[in-house]
Structures are given as structure tokens and as C-alpha cells.
Amino acid sequence: MAFDALPLRAVAANVLAAVEYGQSLSQCLPSALASLPATERPELQALCYGTCRWFHRLDGELNQRLKKPLRKPDRVVHHLMLVALFQLRHSQQATYAILNETVEACRALDKPHLTGLVNGVLRAAQREGEPQPATATIQYSHPEWMVEKLRHNWPEAWAAILEANNAQAPMTLRVNASQISRADYLQWLTDAGIGAEPTLYAPYGIQLASPCGVDKLPGFADGAVSVQDEAAQLCTTLLDLAPGQRVLDACAAPGGKTCAMLEQCPELAEVIALDQSAERLPRVQENLDRLGLSATLMEADAANLEQWWDQLPFDRILLDVPCSASGVIRRHPDIKLLRREADITPLATIQTGLLAALWKTLKPGGRMVYATCSVFPQENHRIIQRFLKQERTARLLEPDVSWGIDTTAGRQLLPDSRSHDGFFYACLERIDE
To answer: Which residue in the list 251, 259, 373, 427 is annotated as catalytic?
Structure first.
């Protein structure tokens, strides 16, 4: 999609259209950002993420205001009005600027015949205010299937999950324990005028009072600290790492957990970072290089052992499986538009296959940590329950931790608007037959 020579709001409308037709923000936003001057890029990112975050609520309002849907060739103007509605409802920008610049963007999109409609709809929205949400889908700005699934799975917590998904995620750091203590790095931040506090559960985590660029973080370039959510950091505490172990990080990209393991136990004998995406593995190497760490990177389908396994068993395996990512929606709000309910069963099939295949590579007495960034039981404890019934050599370990909900087959963290993402962990030990 060409973005060149378009004003910012027109670019945002094209990005939103691309997301609606199946591209993620991470796929279509980089080229859009590159088309704009550096000074406008933060605003474009904020518009695209914000409109995705509130898409279903904004779309509900816009559909109420339109007498009939726009024709498919004019659909980009629908997205343009969503961007403007987002600004009306969630920004401090002057109303006249939003209206005038949106009308100009409509012309730039070669839709001059719709400028009157755009102007009329937005003026009415400004004059009348936001209508009362008619459904939970509109109120909480999530697709209907997700609202109902969460209501069914978490009857006491579904509304809190939806609200947390709509909150801005905090910026959380992982201190490199091989370089500096958390207490010393907190002091370093204080000296730099950056507000922060230790995370509640992750022993090397620090949550910033407000996000900042990594270039502002003391020692970042030298590997003193990395950006990683608190929930994702907990994998290393569950793995029980020790010197001399051979460790597999399956589905490793972008490498945050690989690096965390090496930071916290530099004397590991070997860490293999495996991922089937050739495009994402360089990111793993970049993270390792910045931190001064070393791992063996391999491109392969983890479930196809003949592609990569050398028949030497692992002492520890982290299996962070592909999932719906329903626990990290606040960081990736385009998930609301991209994910479908029909995706969950195929994902569960992949997860089950990975678990069964990689179990064969685990040494007797070894430990596997199964992880997802999902809040759906179908991808989490139900997978573990079935596996434990089918695999006689598998035993569930119950770690002594204070976080998460005990599902009887692993621990579930639900997204918290003030701290961690949604995550699931289960610890499994291989026993002799």
C-alpha cells in the first residue's frame, strides 16, 4: 500500500483499512511511518493504536450516525471518520482542527464527493457527544465473540479483563542481574530523574511511572536492562535453572526469555533458541549481542524433531507456544480486529502437538514450562489436563508462588491495568516410566 504524499490522517485511515483486511499493525505501520516526517510519526502511531483500541466502540457510534454503510470502494473514508472520532473522544486536540484536517484528508484520499458527509457526521458527533453504548461489545470495545467467551470463562472477572485490555500498558524493565542489582538500577533511575518501583512478583523487574524511550534508560545500550513485561519475566523463576544444564527455548523469537535465562544463570552449558521464523531470528541475535550473551540459534519447526534435534536430551525446556495473544491486547490492540473465534481450536491443536513432540526431548527428571500469553482456558489449563491424562511420564509441579489463579493444571495471570499482562504457566516434570 502506497502512503507517500498523503497527510497524516489519510495515512492513518489506510493503515486501519489494511488492519481490517488482515494485516497486523506490525506489518503495515512501519512503511506508513516511513512515509511521514519524523516529527509526525509519534502521532500516527498514537492514532493507529488508539483507534484499534477503541475500534468497536467508535465503529458502533459511527454506524449509528450513518444512514447507510459506505460503498466498499469508499470504505477508507469510514476508517478516516473512525480516526477523527477517536480524536474527538480521546484527545485534547482542538475540534476545529480535527474537523478541518479530516475533510482535507478526505480530499487527499481522492474522495471529494464525501467531504460533506464527513463534515456533517463529525459536527453532529461533536455537538451531540458520545451516545450511550447499546451493547457490551460497544461499551468495552471488543468483538462480541471475545466478550461472550470471557464472560463464560471468567464470570467474576470478565469486565475487569476487558477494561484492563483498554488501558495503556505500563513500561516494565528486566534488570540484567549479571551486571547490576535491581536496587542499584532503581537508584540509577532515581539519579536520572525517572520514576520507578520494583515489580511485585518478578525478582528483577522494575515498572516505570511513565514510559520513556530506551535511549533515556541508563545503561540500556550496554545491556544493563531490557524491556519486558512482568508476567513474561516469571518464566525464569519457574524453570529452576542451574549451572551445567542444557536448555531449549522453543518458539524463542524475539528472544526476551532466552536472554533472561542467560542473564540469571550464565553458567548454563547450552541454550538453544529455536524458532521457525527466519525473519524473526535476527531480532534474537540483536538482543543477545546488546546484552553480551551467547546462544545457539536454530530455524526449524519445533514440532518436527527430525529437522533439528540432535537426540541429546534437555534438562529444561521453555515452551512459549503460539496462541491467541488474548492476554496482551493492551499492547497489541489490533488483535481485536484480527483474531477470530474460529482461530482458537486450530491454535489449541498446534499447542498440543508442540507439547507432545517436545516432551520426547526432555530428560527424565527434567522440567518443562508451558507458557502462553492467553487468557482462554482452551489454550491453557485444558491443554495441560489432557496431556497429563495421556502422558504417563508427566507430573504437574505446583510452584510455591503468590501470583496468579490456581487452575489445578497451571497458574493463570489475568491482565492487570496497573501491572502485568495476561499469561499462563504450567510446570511439568518428566518422571521415569
So the answer is: 373
